[in-house]
Amino acid sequence: MATISDFKNNFRGGVRANLFQVTITAPVIGMMDLQFLGKAASIPASTIGNIDVPFRGRQLKVPGDRTFADWTVTILNDPEWSYRTAIESWMDKINNHSQNQSSINASDIYGQATVSQLNRTGGIIRTYRIQDIYPIEAAAIELSMDANDAVEEFTVNFAINNFTVDGSGIDGGQQGGGVDISISGSLNLGGVSISGGINL
Predict the structure, then answer these.
(1) DSSP β-bridge partners for residue 67
(2) 66, 84, 101, 132: which could join 161 in a potential S-S bond, CB 3.0 to 4.6 Å?
(3) Over its length of 200 residues, how does the chain's per-residue pLDDT go in tens digits?
(4) What b/e string do you get for 54-88 counting C-beta neighbours within 10 Å, with b at 16 or more?
(5) What is the pTM of this model?
(6) In this structure, is the dihedral angle defined by the CA atoms of residues 76, 81, 85 and 88, taken in order, positive or negative?
(7) Which residues, in sequence order, are bridge partners of residue 139?
C-alpha cells in the first residue's frame, strides 16, 4: 500500500499554475513578450473528434479529425494603452474598423505564440509552440464609478490552427513568469509613430 512518503516522492511539489511565460509574434505588431502585465494564459487545448459507425445494431467508435480550441490571454491595461493598441492594430489590419476590407496580405495575418511552463527555479519544463494564430476578439473593458481598488484588464481570444510541443521542454532555464509585452517594428500609438523596438 502506498504511503504519504511515496506520495511525496512522486508528487515532488507539483507544478505551479502561476509560473509561466508567453510570447506572441506577428508581422503587424512584431514581438510581444508577456511577462509583467499579463494576468493569465493557458496551455492550449485540442480535441479529437469521434465518428460513430453503425454496424448491425452497434456503434463502432472511430477517431475523427483534430480541432483546436480558441486560446485566451488576459492582460492588465497599462497607462499608455500600448498592449490594447497593439492588439487593436492587428485586428484593424485584418479587417478595418470603419470599412469591410483588409490592409495586409493574407500571409501576414497570422502570428505565432509560445507558452512555457516554468519550474520553481525559473527553468522551462515544457514549451508549447502555437502556430498560425490571429485575434478574433479583444474583449470589452468594463468601466464603473464604484470599481474601487481594481485595475483594468481585458482578454484577447485567438483562433489557432495547430500547436507543437518542444521535446522534453527543458532548455536549462530561462527566467520569467507572468506576462510581459515588448513590441518591435513600427507601431502607431495615439498618433505617435514608434519605429525600431521598445520593451514595455
Answers:
(1) 47
(2) 132
(3) 889 998 888 888 889 999 999 999 999 888 888 877 888 999 999 999 999 999 999 999 999 999 999 999 999 999 999 889 999 999 999 999 888 888 888 888 999 999 999 999 989 999 999 999 999 999 999 999 998 999 999 999 999 999 999 865 444 444 444 444 444 455 554 554 544 444 44
(4) eeeeeeeeeeeeeebeebebbbbebeeebbbbbbe
(5) 0.78
(6) positive
(7) none
User: What is the domain partition of the chain in residue ranges?
Assistant: 13-45+64-199
- CATH of the domain spanning 13-45+64-199, picked from 1.10.10, 2.60.40, 2.30.110, 2.170.140: 2.30.110
Strands in 16-152 per DSSP E: 20-26, 30-40, 46-55, 58-68, 71-76, 111-118, 124-138
Give me the residue label for grid cell 515532488. 12
Query: CA-CA distance, 34 to 179, in Å (whole number)?
Result: 3
